[in-house]
Amino acid sequence: MGLLEKAESGKEPGKKSKKEAVEKPPTKVEAPQQKKAAKPKKESRFSRRREREKKAKEPKAPVDLPSFPAGFEQPTSGQMTFRRFVDILVSYGWMFPIVGIYGWGSDFDATFFIIGGMLLYIANVGFLPSRFNRTVGNIVSRTKFVTSSGNNASWAYTFLKGLNLPFALIGLVTALMMTADLSAPLGDTTGSAVIRIIGLLLLLPLTLDWLLTKFSMAKRGLWERVFGGVWLVRSTKTGSSKGWLKRLDQLSDYAEKRGLLSEKEEDTTNLD
Questions:
Q1: I want to staple 218 with a disulfide (CB 3.0 to 4.6 A). Which of 65, 143, 191, 261 is the partner?
Q2: Torsion, CA 243, CA 245, CA 246, CA 247, rounded to 10
Q3: pTM to 2 decimals?
């Protein structure tokens, strides 16, 4: 009898456990389903908020950027390089011998040379563009500056664009002077402080011009944007039959024969 009781007692707990196992799963399954059903609602709210925020933060469609003018041809890399070289030589070539003489240690009065060089600079980037819509570099490279609408660029563009090199030199010299005397970087007097601050401020347009040219979608610098999206395009000879304009046209013919105006192997972006 004892063995039968034990056998029956051993079977009954098994049956009960099986019944409990059958009865418990529905309760265990239902509870997690309710919790899981509640969680997605919270996530959906956050996802909706994120979607709304993304839609609100989506960048607006870009405004019409300065585009290359219709009816014109882009210059070759040789034309761009030759124009830049000639304009630098004409506008700033007078500086190099003066700096060399002073660097050699010679003592001479360069006032008249500086005045003559400034007049030459004004004539190249101010007078010629206002009269002929071209600099000396434009004439010999057979190029010119136009806006996105196809009109000739203002002479003020070439004048201000040409100030990049003097501004860079003045800012560099000012920075060197300030770092040389860290105890009094602005100088000992009010006048020296004002001059040094102005020298540093001249670097701001250069920095902004470089950033816009380097990282903007249109690859247009500060002055190009200010004057309506300026581009360098191909042009023809002046057609002058006499005078110095005729000589410049002959120089452009010579440059073309020498292959200086042709396309180079490594083409560059039109950033002039």
A1: 65
A2: 90
A3: 0.66
